[in-house]
Amino acid sequence: MKILIAEDDFSSRTLLTAVLKKIGHQVVETVNGIEALNKLQQIDAPKLAIVDWMMPVIDGPEVIRRIRAVENNQHNQHESKFVRPYIILLTTKVDKSDIVTGLDAGADDYLTKPFDMGELKARVDVGRRILDMQAALSAKVTELQEALNQINTLKGILPICANCKKIRDDAGYWQQVEAYISKYTSAEFSHGICPDCMKKLYPELCDELDE
To answer: I need a labelling partner for 120 at 20 to 30 A (CA). Which of 104, 148, 204, 209 fits?
Structure first.
């Protein structure tokens, strides 16, 4: 997984990068809040970020607030290009009020410095699992929306031939009812003959059966 690190301290950034690469992740390094903000808004932005609280230009909580604002704006406009990143806030602050401030800014998790390597790995793994679940949920929502669109198509007015009962599709082609329904639903057909058609097609056989 691609992970963004926003950390102005060289030693901390180098250690974070080494640990994350060792456990198999790709790392994108930034040294201030503006760089981090720009990277997180790119099309191929990392889906997980570790953001230090104290950074030049803009601090970690402000980076998170701005990212969440972009996310909410695109959501309200029904745009799907922006992928919500999972953000871990990294800091030396340990007071509960500071933790609340970080989480209120929109952070998904909180990690104090100096960090334990095992704890870092565990928190990154939690983020990865949540992102995987979000991706699976998004795919299911898309699938359900496509199914709903098909249902809405079937609920509309369908031009049907009064004689042969073929249906005209949106492209202007006429096709059998079963072909049209098979295209827009998961229904399968097994063919038989109704009693009325049986009498028309095989009158003699029906007379024998009636006797």
So the answer is: 104
